[in-house]
DNA sequence: AGGATTCTGGAGTGTCAACTCCACTCTGCG
DNA sequence: CGCAGAGTGGAGTTGACACTCCAGAATCCT
């Protein structure tokens, strides 16, 4: 539980190795959770030795924080450019379809790359929690802004609380993913998102 | 990872000890998660010796399944009798208030007693997953039935998909709890629930 | 009562995970 | 070219954790 990483000086090779470690760790954490992912598993998967791992990260907590950042980037990357243009009913539906299709592909295993870490670490590691809050915010922002644009443009009534709807959409997504992961069926995710989308529609001008 | 527990014969004292172990384990798991809860912690908290623990449970997995059942009972108990009469807008709002107040009390720490276990075990232990599915179902059923009664009674239009709304409500609850736990603010839970409640209202006859 | 069974205490055992150490090799740069 | 610092390999240490064992006490049942 080191404070913050001293901004180390890294060569190109060093950056590559570090990235390889984080990517391997992220994948394992997504599949098995933080606690069940051993340093040694990461080590093997990344093809590095133990000393290298501790050369780049003070301890497991610090590595996990790097994983959170990596997964946040990943989530945003996958959903981009969709996420940047969530400003029409069409776009919102397309986004929903992509999310559902993604879970379908992975046979409903693995919940949200950020959400499942949040469930595990939010109450345990204050620094991780801060990073998770930041991660969710980076995710929520484009949704919020898309809805705001719809309102400003006149697609939604002027008195629409777009911030609330954006938050509700993110919550529906998280809850839907959890139930989908548990039940191994995409219906919960689809229904949860559809319900909030329907609610957004009731604010159409 | 034993199959199913052989239905052991227990005396009154045995049942009490077993219950004490499960209760202690449930509390620790709720606070720290499955992986971070050691058998020894449970042992100490329950005031029993190691051999007793393994006298009642084949292994940790089996204990965790008992915890899932215990938490399901607990969740239903806390929300009863509210949960059995979720058949009016008033009751739904009261229920929402209780849920929000509960998170407020615990300062937004600890997500859902079932949901957080689900996030950790759904992909890891098939038997636990089955129990979690059953637990969520026991939770969803009264919600579903309450909404169905509202429709049958004519409070909601006849073409209302009450099953979908019930599922959406549960998803909103789960997602709202996760975001509330992460952000340490009750707003996400409240907003998520309110949004689905508003959507239910649009189906008022 | 008394024999079978359940219940309990506590000292072990083996394994595995996180983390350390040190010696060696590469790389950037003046 | 040379050296300081970055990068690497792998054996080793420490502790925690799940689980076992066995002997003795309490309890049940006929």
From TrEMBL, chains A, B:
Lineage: Bacteria, Bacillati, Actinomycetota, Actinomycetes, Pseudonocardiales
DNA-binding residue intervals: 38-57
Annotated InterPro entries: Homeodomain-like_sf (IPR009057), HTH_TetR (IPR001647), Tet_transcr_reg_TetR-rel_C_sf (IPR036271), TetR_C (IPR011075)
HTH tetR-type domain ranges (all copies): 15-75
Superkingdom, taxonomy of origin: Bacteria
Keyword Transcription applies: yes
Protein's name according to its UniProt entry: TetR/AcrR family transcriptional regulator
Keyword Transcription regulation: yes
Pfam family, one: TetR_N
Keywords: DNA-binding, Transcription, Transcription regulation
């Amino acid at each position: 539980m080191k404070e913050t990483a001293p901004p180390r000086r890294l060569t190109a090779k060093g950056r590559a190795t570090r990235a390889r470690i984080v990517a391997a760790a992220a994948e394992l954490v997504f599949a098995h959770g933080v606690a069940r992912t051993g340093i040694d598993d990461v080590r093997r998967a990344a093809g590095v030795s133990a000393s290298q791992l501790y050369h780049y990260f003070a301890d497991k907590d610090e590595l996990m924080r790097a994983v959170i950042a990596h997964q946040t980037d990943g989530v945003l990357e996958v959903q981009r450019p969709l996420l940047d243009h969530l400003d029409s009913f069409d776009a919102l539906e397309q986004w929903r379809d992509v999310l559902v299709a993604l879970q379908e592909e992975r046979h409903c295993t693995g919940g949200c790359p950020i959400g499942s870490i949040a469930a595990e670490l939010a109450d345990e590691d204050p620094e991780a929690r801060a990073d998770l809050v930041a991660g969710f915010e980076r995710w929520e922002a484009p949704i919020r802004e898309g809805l705001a644009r719809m309102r400003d443009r006149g697609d939604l009534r002027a008195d629409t609380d777009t911030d609330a709807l954006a938050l509700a959409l993110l919550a529906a997504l998280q809850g839907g993913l959890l139930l989908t992961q548990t039940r191994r069926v995409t219906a919960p995710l689809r229904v949860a998102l559809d319900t909030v989308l329907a609610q957004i529609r009731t604010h159409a001008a």
